[in-house]
Amino acid sequence: MSVLGLLVPLAVLGLIVxxxxxxxxxxxxxxxxxTATALYAxxxxxxxxxxxxxxxxxxxxxxxxxxxxAYSYYAAVAISQLCPPNAACPPPEQMDFYTQQRSQDxxxxxxxxxxxxxxxxxxxFLGRAVARMPGGAPGxxxxxxxxxxxxxxxxxxxxxxxxxxYLVLSYFIVGNSLQNQQPWxxxxxxxxxxxxxxxxxxxxxxxxxxRPHMGATTSV
Length: 220
Hints:
It is a single chain. The protein is mainly alpha-helical. Helix content is 69%, strand content 0%. Helix 1 (7-24) packs antiparallel against helix 5 (139-174).
């Protein structure tokens, strides 16, 4: 989850920059209550999309774990080392470690996807509703939404895909042992979830920038 740890500081920094750009370079657009509502709706839309993508990545991690637990999880070998000498200690497999981890990830992933879709959907329609009001769809908000999504999906997707590919190759070429465990399900799952989303929003951003802005040029 180290790559995901970058999202919080990146989101805070991006929101500050977004607000500064909106205040200083509105291009004559009025700043109304509809403008503030539109900004809120777009920020929450991005949060919902990211939550859904993270949930998809976790579900994929669990799915890889169902194929082979070693693809996504570390072996619970350290548990037996905690037992006192000459004492009966159950082997790790009897503690159902993998089943518990996969079940927790599956429940977490589904929860994130459901809540993320609901959050994104509600705020998508809120943004569409205020777009018809004066100041409800300035370019710095509508295009900023696509730019923000492009940045955050790239920050997570590209490093995750690169790390996932490296770990997959290392796993199958070098091998996987108890002393050198390198599960790749999480990184590859996030890469599969985020990279297509990054390509799509980047394409949408390029298309939108090629035409002059006339109000709400995008449905995002």
